[in-house]
Amino acid sequence: MTAPHVTLGEVLLPESGAKQTDKIRERRIAVCGACLQKTDRRQKQPPVLIRSQSVEEVLPCRVMASASIPVYNSSNNPLENSSNHNASRESLKMEPLADCSLLPGEERIIDKDIIYICPFSGALKGKVFITNYRLYFKSADADPAVTLDVPLGAIGRVEKMGGASSRGENSYGLDITCKDMRNLRFALKQEGHSRRDIFDILFKYAFPLSHGLLLFAYLSQEKFEENGWSVYKPMEEFRRQGLPNDKWRVTFINANYELCDTYPTILVVPFKATEEDLRKVCTFRSRGRIPVLSWIHRENQAVICRCSQPLVGMSGKRNKDDERYLDLIREANGTAKLTIYDARPSVNAVANKATGGGYEGDDAYQNAELVFLDIHNIHVMRESLKKLKDIVYPNVEESHWLSSLESTHWLEHIKLVISGAIQVADKISGGNSVVVHCSDGWDRTAQLTSLAMLMLDSHYRTLRGFQVLLEKEWISFGHKFANRIGHGDKNHADQDRSPIFVQFIDCVWQMTKQFPTAFEFNERLLVTILDHLFSCRFGTFLYNCESARDTNELRSKTVSLWSLVNSDLSFYQNPFYTPESNRVLYPVASMRHLELWVTYYIRWNPRIRQQQQSPVEQRYIELLALRDEYLKKLEELQLSDSSPNSSHLSNSSTPNAASPTQHVTHLHTPF
Amino acid sequence: MTAPHVTLGEVLLPESGAKQTDKIRERRIAVCGACLQKTDRRQKQPPVLIRSQSVEEVLPCRVMASASIPVYNSSNNPLENSSNHNASRESLKMEPLADCSLLPGEERIIDKDIIYICPFSGALKGKVFITNYRLYFKSADADPAVTLDVPLGAIGRVEKMGGASSRGENSYGLDITCKDMRNLRFALKQEGHSRRDIFDILFKYAFPLSHGLLLFAYLSQEKFEENGWSVYKPMEEFRRQGLPNDKWRVTFINANYELCDTYPTILVVPFKATEEDLRKVCTFRSRGRIPVLSWIHRENQAVICRCSQPLVGMSGKRNKDDERYLDLIREANGTAKLTIYDARPSVNAVANKATGGGYEGDDAYQNAELVFLDIHNIHVMRESLKKLKDIVYPNVEESHWLSSLESTHWLEHIKLVISGAIQVADKISGGNSVVVHCSDGWDRTAQLTSLAMLMLDSHYRTLRGFQVLLEKEWISFGHKFANRIGHGDKNHADQDRSPIFVQFIDCVWQMTKQFPTAFEFNERLLVTILDHLFSCRFGTFLYNCESARDTNELRSKTVSLWSLVNSDLSFYQNPFYTPESNRVLYPVASMRHLELWVTYYIRWNPRIRQQQQSPVEQRYIELLALRDEYLKKLEELQLSDSSPNSSHLSNSSTPNAASPTQHVTHLHTPF
């Protein structure tokens, strides 16, 4: 028994003392610093360095100065001309640095002695080095060493802290605001403007698009077994849904993005709507985002359509084509009413009339009912997450935690999004088609349709199905990832930025918590997705829409995140997964059942460290292994034995036990 | 796919659609009413009717008028004299009533047509019947029927609602406040004072001690396979701890409760302390509750001692015997400092001087350090739980749930109790002995010592070990159950009542949530314990102390709750349990990691209904069954096969899989 240091109300969970199988032990995580860096002793090619420490692993630390890694060469130093101080020159000396392996295509730019002002461990002397992909820091004195490994893509803002006149220890340096709920503060020696070079380099490489440079995804030379770009094929996905059919047809009217430049090329529309109809409807919908089919219910043929708001304006304009078009949607499965879900609060919908938008009036759309879902806009969500960051980083507000959490309204927003999606899913289950829109139909609309589809369609709850869902509802339908995240862009205060996709992934996480056996993927996948939402290592979340991706040859020049994921699927698999194809999931959208996603939002805080793997998960995996071992022995015995006793073994799994066996086929080595 | 009725923000979780094994199906729970009554189709003798619907089961509904069940006989009707109205007479007619089986010894007293004002389903006509043990209601019209099954012991207060002059539908009737977080409201016809008889009977049988009647535990004729009274044998438990030894001796000075009438008969004290010393110390400790050993650390010999406050008083009295005695405790394992944990806030400890109490001053106790743990008193806890009830019953406060929950301070109190226990456990792990007290040493002290022991000693985390812990730290050491719960007593406003034990069980639940594999028992056991804390069906929680139990011949005249539990152990077993004998559990006592125990406090609300069994638990049990099946087949094959291949089967479980095998020995039929 050991005696941990205990302070009132904050006690670290000890590492699980449970026995581990060899498989698990082999991949055991060594925690090597207060900043949660973990090191895996396993060797692997190509070296992959992943940074979401609470659920992933950092791969083996190698000597930097190996042959395959470019050593700094002053002749191509971009700062050569500006680095006219001795201090700078000194700092540009590149030593071999242990403990970090570079990605193929990653290049070292600078390294420098620095002090990391760790909010948990205090000031730590060490060395920082910056590549075209990451900022890496390792402390010199602390034992275990504190390391930081931050993709430059996760950096939202870099500021100089403390001027020439500033006094006090460690007051001169850099302040870095990250997009992933943390801030970093570094101090340097004040003599000789020692921070100038590192600031300039960081500013340039963290915001390459603002400096005429390429995003790292275009420089990466990573190779994977799988090609993630082939995960989503629109026609295949529509065929899986039973489309086209006699009520719904595929149109290529947008093949050149001429109907709508933020939509994908392949669209599904009512069979009776002509191309001419589509063009007319296009004029009455914001950004030309006409109502198109996203999902159809196999049995009752109810559909989820998505679009942008109608261009009603102050004068209350009507458009017969739009009205007829929506009625075609209703008519397709023969129900009396079409439900239009406007994601916005009704006051916002009314206010949009002033800028030409609005909502479907009762008079104009007689066979439709309009329901407002009261979900707030991107600005409200951005401010809400900012407030959440304020109460969790660096220190978690403890004395009034619950009311502080409430005052961020984050969970309340989550609740409204999930509630809205439940209403969509329930309407569909009841056989009624729905049209979902917000203002432009690329933020709240994507949240609602994709969550409703996740509730309705178990395919999207599989590892590959979930990738399809993201590719389809978010990427191909033009959620403005570039604007919302600001990849490579220095304008941190851009009002277009907003954590809409983060909020969606949080909603998915809430569902996985409420239905722990319903999803094939685990929390690691969700955190990995959010990490690479920012990292710019993969092309997956770059650009606002398909037309921009085509222009920039994204698929041929970058690697897909799904290449990484699908090359190591077992790492992202939920051992408890039990396929149930016809089950509609209705999560409970009440405040008592929603939880803050602590393992994502508060993962940088070492006091909140969660166990790497839940003991229940661990026990389950052990039991799976044991079951497999027995099965193997049974088979061996069966081979060597011809007695009548062994004949029934071919039917060794009972009907009741079918599901565990079923999912074990792809789970026998979850670790 | 079905379409549930959906309202914004409140959606029912659908029943899990996962396939179940036959074993599970056999015991499947049928939910038969909005008030959460569940019916098990299994038949069993003796009929046991359990009422904690969210985790237990109500046993098969039988016809009431069976031969073994006493039919109402007007000649022994206790209300014969007072029931002089036609309405009353009519109501006293006893019909055979289906759907409820009586306990052996349970007798019907009255049944009556009544309206249950269900807060969730509205007014429901039906019939209520009252026995000497319970109030049972079944609706006549609702489909499925709504039933209530409330042990009279759970009733805290019965009031008449609406006077002769009251108007309005269903305004005349009874208001029942329960001790288990719910209220019940019944309406009757206003004509002929129809509520008088039922009010009188309920008042008399719900509060038997206030009416010269016996508690039901003394009337029950239940028989069980196991005798729960043999679970705890003090000498055996001390021997398990390695006591007595050369530093600690067993004393029988309290054999006749002459030293301290609220202590058990067998005490462990420092070897060097004479009986005379104990008598002297006794004079300086509130209620004579001297410091005695509760637990000793096998390796480092650090001990947890418990006692009441020293009688310091306003004048700051000292007592050399007490000071020397505490130093003997410190001395026993040779450490320099003894830590005294005073559970109270320091201001309360100071205030206690005014009534003769106080705390150990620095000057007097030179080798001791005193730490105040800031846990509030019984009155604060009572009011806190009342506030919690206000926000969860009947309706859960949704719009400001988090801040409302915070304003009850319930979780904050839980946090302080757990934090205190962590400090005790940590001090012990570090090899230092501690003395724990509050004012009298029977409320907060019991919470702290028993929680610390649960953290330190894995034996108490087993099903039987937990029973020993409760019998020892709570029951034998005189937690005033009779006063705190008010068994059979009509004085609902008694200031001595307080949910201290409920709060402790909540702390245990928090630990089971944070360490899901560390406890052999499941949540059902905790809820069952709390149900029978109130029910008066078992003798376990009756009376304030051992001397009162002896006087009232409790062990010979009543049945122990552990008789029920230990006769069906598998029902209370946690399938994930993994024994780990040397692990000290340090739960995280921060607000972010503490949860409201929704499945206990909000279990009456049908909207909060939790899944009967978590799908993960279900999957795990299925897998255990499958593993066992394979193992059985392997054994069969081994018997019939003499080939060399089968020889290694005797060693069929690998070292890594040892723990699953280990705990399966008593888990192979968890259902």
Automatic annotation (TrEMBL), chains A, B:
It is found in: Cell membrane; Cell projection, Filopodium; Cell projection, Ruffle; Cytoplasm, Myofibril, Sarcomere. This is Myotubularin. Keywords: Cell membrane, Cell projection, Cytoplasm, Endosome, Hydrolase, Lipid metabolism, Membrane, Protein phosphatase. The keyword Zinc does not apply. Gene3D superfamilies: Pleckstrin-homology domain (PH domain)/Phosphotyrosine-binding domain (PTB). It comes from the Eukaryota. It catalyses: 1,2-dioctanoyl-sn-glycero-3-phospho-(1D-myo-inositol-3,5-bisphosphate) + H2O = 1,2-dioctanoyl-sn-glycero-3-phospho-(1D-myo-inositol-5-phosphate) + phosphate; 1,2-dioctanoyl-sn-glycero-3-phospho-(1-D-myo-inositol-3-phosphate) + H2O = 1,2-dioctanoyl-sn-glycero-3-phospho-(1D-myo-inositol) + phosphate; a 1,2-diacyl-sn-glycero-3-phospho-(1D-myo-inositol-3-phosphate) + H2O = a 1,2-diacyl-sn-glycero-3-phospho-(1D-myo-inositol) + phosphate; a 1,2-diacyl-sn-glycero-3-phospho-(1D-myo-inositol-3,5-bisphosphate) + H2O = a 1,2-diacyl-sn-glycero-3-phospho-(1D-myo-inositol-5-phosphate) + phosphate. Belongs to the protein-tyrosine phosphatase family. Non-receptor class myotubularin subfamily. Residues 228-601 form the Myotubularin phosphatase domain. Its EC number is 3.1.3.95. It holds the Pfam family GRAM. Residues 641-653 have a biased composition (Low complexity). Residues 654-664 have a biased composition (Polar residues). It comes from Salmo salar (Atlantic salmon). The keyword Nucleotide-binding does not apply. Its main location: membrane. It is a peripheral membrane protein. Residues 641-671 are annotated as: Disordered. SUPFAM superfamilies: (Phosphotyrosine protein) phosphatases II (SSF52799), PH domain-like (SSF50729). Residues 408-454 form the Tyrosine specific protein phosphatases domain.
